[in-house]
Amino acid sequence: MSAAYDVVPFSELLHKPGVTAGRLDRVRALRLRRRDAGDLALMRVEQLDAEGAVVDFTSRMLAGLVRRLGSDAVRDVLPDALPWVTFLPDTDVDRFVSELVEVAQGAAALENLAPFATLLTQWRHTAEIHADPALLEMLTRGPEGDLGPVPVPDEPGGGE
């Protein structure tokens, strides 16, 4: 296999399923582009299982490193994997490492990487804010003056 994935129109899978699936002999997965919806991925079950095993191993190893060597070991190498972490304050890096280990283990146990991907995205956005002094100042300053009246919330079960 030479590439991670090929991109093909979803209609190709519908019109030539055998030929399209045969491409999996050369790549790990196919990204099926759809016009009116999110893209889909097609891969062999063996590939899916292998990737799941790697994620499970990695999350367990990460947790083991933290237990045996402490979070400083992970903290020290984190910039190698995620260079943007250098923009986070020290207290945030500590929280990130803790959340990273917990969420990685939980995501692997559930065989659902979405929470792990969300965590990485959230912390990356936090680093982007810290990297931009003007944005950081704007988002962290207190409100100025009275913000005005707050409307009374609608009653539950009421309304239209």
Strand-helix topology:
Elements: E1 3-9, H1 10-15, H2 17-22, E2 27-33, E3 40-43, H3 45-69, H4 71-81, H5 90-110, H6 114-131, H7 133-140
Parallel strand pairs: 1-2
Antiparallel strand pairs: 2-3
Helix pairs in contact: 3-4, 3-5, 5-6
Protein described:
By secondary structure, the chain is mostly helical. The protein has 2 domains: 3-43; 47-139, no CATH class. It is 59% helix and 11% strand. The chain contains 7 helices and 3 strands, in the order βααββααααα. The chain has helices at residues 10-15, 17-22, 45-69, 71-81, 90-110, 114-131, 133-140, and strands at residues 3-9, 27-33, 40-43. A 3-stranded mixed sheet has the order 1-2-3. β2 (27-33) and β3 form a beta hairpin. The longest helix is centred in the middle third of the chain and has 25 residues, at 45-69. The chain is extended. The chain starts with a strand and ends in a 20-residue tail after the last helix. The model has no long low-confidence stretch (mean pLDDT 89). Residues 140-160 are annotated as: Disordered.
